[in-house]
Amino acid sequence: METYIFKIVLCSSLFILFYNLVLKNEKLLKFNRFYLIATLLISLAIPFLHYEIASVEVQKISGLQFGESENTIQNIAIKNSIFTFQNVIFTLYFLIIFFLLIKFLLNLWQINREISSNEKVKNGAFWLILKNEKTAPHSFWKYIFINKNDFQKGNINEKIILHETAHLEQKHSLDLLFIELFLIFFWFNPAFYLYKKAILTNHEYLADDLVLSKSGNVSEYQNLLLTQLISEKIFFSNSFNLINTKNRIKMMTKTLSKTAKLKSWMSIPLVAIAFFTFAEKIPAKEISIKSTREISLNKIDFINETKIHYLKREKDTIKKDTLKPMKQILEKKPEIAPPVPPVKIKTKDKIESPVAPPLPPIADKIDESAEFPGGINALRTQVANTFDISKMSGNEGLIKSTIYFKIDEKGVASNFRAEGTNEIFNAEAIRDLKFVNDGKIWKPAILDGKPVASVYKLPLTMKFEFAQQSK
């Protein structure tokens, strides 16, 4: 998920940078409004899209290895700790969202209270809200908020009312609500704050343009802007002098340049560039496997809840002819049972490992270890055969994971949990172990002649080397 967030930030930054450098000072007012809203949505969508690229993926796999048990006793934590860095980040993220959402709702409530508690005067399709306290003219939804005393004395110029009416007719309030909701859930993205500023500025340009189209007196309207004093910040509203007056006056005197339309058309290749840069690239599934899978059959730990008991047993051996090269395994279906169809997992995503509930008390000492049907070698072979390496496309280097699961006194395996730095490898290892153990009954561990619950530890290691070769 972190990858997608990073792509959203970069993609939105690219779009707003183009706007500020190319479109901002052009009198493309309606197009600019469309561009700002559209690219906001596009920047959110592109990182979740994907396209295929023609290539041959060469996989080099050194082997799936099962770690050897340790010959010393050590403590081990079976329960999942909630105090992880990831949990802290997620908690902070949602706390900030909560407070911003409360602020958003309070602002809406404040506007609603002003509407219901003040005198209202019908003005065409909209309402004038006459406030007793001193306030700058501003608008929201279908209401224009002005000072009651100024209105009754005729101190409010009709062009001011026309300006605020333009905001309402063009439904600028929808844009404001839209960007505010974006900032609640994506408060960490600095580009969206630049979007908000650009949207508000463009709203003022649009309203000014409508006023001038009806009055036609540019200099008179400019003088009105210069004499209008605003000292109060109004949340969720279009303040008459919210944006720098100097920029508004400059925009009034501008005409459509010869290159303006060309600049607007440049946004199309920009979106295409963003798509091919930030969308997920999925290689065509044409895979060439250059190496075989070797299975290292080292010992597996058999442990209780707090201690690892090294079992002094003869090292298990497997005849060489029982080990199948990787290519043969992939071409030939496993004799036990085919793996369940793999769930599509985007490589760049970070996948949460399934969290197992706390394990019940486990016996402190074990006289006889639990045993998989057919023995340890059968477990290793089945795990190797059903491991789906295609899900590891794009990963490189040495990847390790340790799988823990419970074997109850009836021989049923459950509560699978993985510890490792690669979440995709963890998830596939858990899926693999669950599939292998589905319907299997272990010989449970024995303590004092009776079957008892125990915990199994299975270390896995695999080295991946992937190379893309375009056709």
From TrEMBL:
<protein>
    <submittedName>
        <fullName>BlaR1 peptidase M56</fullName>
    </submittedName>
</protein>
<feature type="transmembrane region" description="Helical">
    <location>
        <begin position="176"/>
        <end position="195"/>
    </location>
</feature>
<feature type="transmembrane region" description="Helical">
    <location>
        <begin position="34"/>
        <end position="51"/>
    </location>
</feature>
<keyword id="KW-1133">Transmembrane helix</keyword>
<dbReference type="InterPro" id="IPR052173">
    <property type="entry name" value="Beta-lactam_resp_regulator"/>
</dbReference>
<keyword id="KW-0812">Transmembrane</keyword>
<dbReference type="Pfam" id="PF05569">
    <property type="entry name" value="Peptidase_M56"/>
</dbReference>
<feature type="transmembrane region" description="Helical">
    <location>
        <begin position="6"/>
        <end position="22"/>
    </location>
</feature>
<keyword id="KW-0472">Membrane</keyword>
<feature type="domain" description="Peptidase M56">
    <location>
        <begin position="141"/>
        <end position="251"/>
    </location>
</feature>
<dbReference type="InterPro" id="IPR008756">
    <property type="entry name" value="Peptidase_M56"/>
</dbReference>
<feature type="transmembrane region" description="Helical">
    <location>
        <begin position="88"/>
        <end position="106"/>
    </location>
</feature>
